[in-house]
């Protein structure tokens, strides 16, 4: 019965933490900072900043490549932050079961 209470408590904490993820942000950059992409904990792009020197139709392919690279880096960074938030939210709530990592569920 105690385990069921712990599971319910963990579920409530996870839901609460998930609601806070929208406020979590991460940045990815490419081209030595010429392109920066910001994402939130819901894995949505919230803004893209580009150096003015890149706004040139002749460099359109490079701009696309840098944007994709910066976006991927931002998503990698936010995934780390999400995992940390979820781990801290459930820390000590569930028994240490080998192979069961709640942080990887999100």
UniProtKB/TrEMBL annotation:
Q: Name one Pfam family in it.
A: YbaB_DNA_bd
Keywords attached to this entry: Cytoplasm, DNA-binding
What Gene3D superfamilies has UniProt attached to this entry? Nucleoid-associated protein YbaB-like domain
Protein localization: Cytoplasm, Nucleoid
Under the GO molecular function aspect, what terms does this record hold? DNA binding
| Cellular-component GO terms for this entry | bacterial nucleoid; cytosol
What InterPro entries does UniProt report for this protein, alphabetically? YbaB-like_sf, YbaB/EbfC
Is DNA-binding given among the entry's keywords?
yes
UniProt KW Cytoplasm keyword:
yes
What role is this protein assigned? Binds to DNA and alters its conformation. May be involved in regulation of gene expression, nucleoid organization and DNA protection.
User: Record's family?
Assistant: Belongs to the YbaB/EbfC family.
Q: How does it assemble?
A: Homodimer.
- UniProt cross-references to PANTHER family, sorted A to Z: NUCLEOID-ASSOCIATED PROTEIN YBAB (PTHR33449)
Q: Which NCBIfam families match?
A: DNA_YbaB_EbfC
Looking up HAMAP family in the UniProt record yields: DNA_YbaB_EbfC
Report the protein name in the record. Nucleoid-associated protein P872_16095
What species is this protein from? Rhodonellum psychrophilum GCM71 = DSM 17998
